[in-house]
Amino acid sequence: MILDDPDEAYYIYDLAIYTAPADRSRAIDRYAKSARFEAQSDERRMLEAMRSSQFAILMVERRHDIIGLIATDILRNSKVWLIDVGLEHSMEEGELFATRLLTPETFSMTAGVNVPFEIEMLKPICMMLPRRVADSKLSQVAEDRRFAEAVYKVGLADGVMDRLAYIEPG
């Protein structure tokens, strides 16, 4: 595998862990079958959050009063309290980005992969999807494994990722 940037491997990891064709099981589910965590342990709760993760396109609404961001999942028309220090320091109100959300409690966090999102990306993304998927309700489109793959492909191909840098807050 040849990548222009080693950071692009994170998109492959995300798809390998959280998605699978309809006739296959996801890596996270196979791992969960063998994991031996106490029922109420942090490890079990995090694993279950990973198993129920959702791919989302978020629009930043505002800063949360305590920590993080309040965002709207535009595919599901729902509010999300997102705790992510890096995003909190770098995202402005009204900005869009795609990510995989883990929700272990009343808050959500990202799985570590973020794509700056522009509405113009929707057309090429939908063109990559089978018609029956692209013509579905947005919340159903988000559940299809190929949607995340299409978002990553378009984001990387269109250079939108060139605007993204991972910097430790300090």
Provide an overview of this structure.
The chain is α+β, with helices and mostly antiparallel strands. It has helices at residues 9-18, 27-34, 42-51, 85-90, 122-128, 131-134, 138-143, 145-157; strands at 54-63, 69-73, 78-82, 96-102, 109-116. A hairpin with a 5-residue loop joins β1 (54-63) and β2 (69-73). α5 (122-128) crosses α8 (145-157). The longest helix has 13 residues, at 145-157.
Structural class category: alpha+beta
The first-to-last residue Cα distance is 34 Å
What's the alpha carbon Rg, rounded to whole Å? 16 Å
Strand content: 15-25%
Tell me roughly what share of residues is in helical segments: 25-40%
Tell me the series of helices and strands, N- to C-terminal.
Answer: HHHEEEHEEHHHH
Strand order of the largest sheet: 3-2-1-4-5
Number of continuous helical runs? 8
Average residue pLDDT: 89
Based on the model shown, name its key terms:
170 residues, alpha+beta, 5-stranded antiparallel β-sheet, 8 helices, globular
List strands and helices in order, with pairings.
Blueprint: H1 9-18, H2 27-34, H3 42-51, E1 54-63, E2 69-73, E3 78-82, H4 85-90, E4 96-102, E5 109-116, H5 122-128, H6 131-134, H7 138-143, H8 145-157
Antiparallel strand pairs: 1-2, 1-4, 2-3, 4-5
Summarize it.
The chain has 8 helices and 5 strands; from the N terminus they run H-H-H-E-E-E-H-E-E-H-H-H-H.
